[in-house]
Design brief:
15 helices, five-stranded antiparallel β-sheet, Rossmann fold, single chain, five-stranded parallel β-sheet, about 425 residues, 3 domains, alpha/beta
């Protein structure tokens, strides 16, 4: 009887955990982005915060990155209570495995240690009260730049793929969410190199630390795992009826002669050309980022010609009437668009915030732990230091949020 009761309780707890995971992001969530030096690079974590702030899958989301160079899953287990709990996360994503694999073939003892510590991280996050936990797999190493040896890359990608499988199993066992970072990166890398050649580094020049291109794939995997539906908005223009409508997050300011002025509080995600060629813009061809996460739809009805010119900002393109009636994705069709400037201003504010977060958790907060243990009489003083450090970060986070201001833009339709 007791055994059946325990089994029933465990089943209920698992179902509750799975239900919570399926709920996705909620308004006001605090998202902790956790990982090793790849996280500390502050690329994919910045892209994630960009998306959460500007694309707004839920309202008033807060983000903090906790990357630590050289870290392993067991290293994080040892420090997570002290270094992360001050943020009071309700959502957490993890990305460990690159260092856990030891840059060598997989072995049973390594696999067990990785599994045990992934479970320990999840269980400790549950004790902290984290509602939505995403266990991310490691990414891949570059097929050509890793140790400048394709054989070495094949070897270590097998290790990382085995860790992917372990991370997925842990997530299933613990009733939390899994993010397949490895496959997102590896698939995009394979397609990119097939078209652009082996010199196109997708996991960075050292083969381990991706540039913006590979990190966009990482952000894609995590945002999908967080349940982001990708619906940025829809603008509908009825030329015959002489009117325009906009979905939530967008407001029609005026409409006249096929030109609609819109004020948008939700931004489409924007892509840029960074120095070095490993750009987010170069990566989107090989990722379904726009299709899955960045749909800003334009529907045009009542055109009196088979070909229609659409002008958005400083860019104009021709579209078939039938395609516009079904709807086109402005974010994908107009990479250069009126949101590029405002988006970059917010991203720069996010970067400033996350730049502070690295010394905040690695030095200021982390180093208070031994002081508290060895000098308990100064606990109040250390608490004040921790609070002051968090307040400094909060000012930068507030500045990033405040930078997301409504954008006015005009879409003009001309039937040819």
């Amino acid at each position: 009887m007791l055994r059946r009761l325990c089994a029933a309780v465990l089943t209920i707890l698992l179902l509750v955990s799975i239900s919570n995971a399926a709920e996705g992001l909620k308004a006001g969530d605090s998202v902790a982005i956790v990982g090793d030096s790849i996280t500390e690079q502050k690329f994919y974590s910045v892209y994630m915060e960009d998306y959460l702030l500007m694309c707004k899958p839920a309202a008033e989301l807060k983000t903090c990155q906790f990357g630590w160079s050289g870290e392993t899953s067991w290293g994080f287990v040892a420090r997570m209570n002290n270094d992360v709990s001050w943020f009071h996360p309700t959502v957490a994503t993890t990305c460990y495995g690159m260092n856990d694999g030891g840059y060598s073939p997989q072995a049973p003892d390594k696999a067990k240690k990785y599994r045990d510590n992934q479970k320990a991280i999840v269980q400790q996050f549950k004790k902290m009260g984290v509602r939505l936990i995403v266990v991310g797999s490691p990414g891949c190493v570059d097929a050509d730049t890793f140790h400048k040896s394709t054989e070495a890359a094949v070897m270590y990608n097998k290790t990382l793929a085995s860790e992917r499988d372990i991370a997925k199993e842990v997530a299933e066992e613990e009733g939390v969410v899994f993010a397949d970072v490895y496959d997102a990166m590896f698939d995009a890398m394979t397609k990119a190199k097939a078209k652009l050649g082996s010199n196109y580094a997708f996991a960075g020049g050292d083969g381990v630390h991706p540039g913006p291109n590979g990190q966009l794939a990482m952000a894609y995997a995590f945002l999908k795992a967080l349940g982001c539906d990708g619906n940025i908005g829809m603008i509908t223009i009825d030329l015959g009826a002489g009117k325009a409508e906009a979905s939530e997050g967008h407001k029609v300011v005026s409409y006249q002669d096929g030109a609609v002025e819109i004020e948008s509080s939700k931004y489409p995600f924007c892509f840029y050309v960074e120095p070095g060629g490993q750009t987010t813009r170069s990566a989107i061809e090989f990722l379904p980022f726009n299709e899955d996460l960045n749909r800003f739809q334009l529907v045009v009805k009542g055109a009196n010609a088979d070909q229609v010119k659409v002008t958005w900002g400083n860019t104009e393109k021709m579209f078939a009437k039938a395609d516009l009636e079904k709807g086109i994705n402005l974010a994908a069709e107009f990479i250069d668009n009126p949101f590029n400037g405002p988006f970059m201003k917010v991203q720069q504010a996010v970067q400033a915030q996350q730049n502070l977060e690295t010394p905040l958790h690695k030095t200021w907060i982390h180093n208070l732990q031994p002081i508290r243990e060895q000098l308990p009489e100064v606990r109040e003083e250390t608490d004040r230091i921790a609070a002051a450090a968090a307040q400094r970060r909060q000012k930068l986070a507030d500045a990033a949020s405040a930078a997301v201001v409504p954008v006015r833009h005009t879409i003009k339709i001309e039937a040819k």
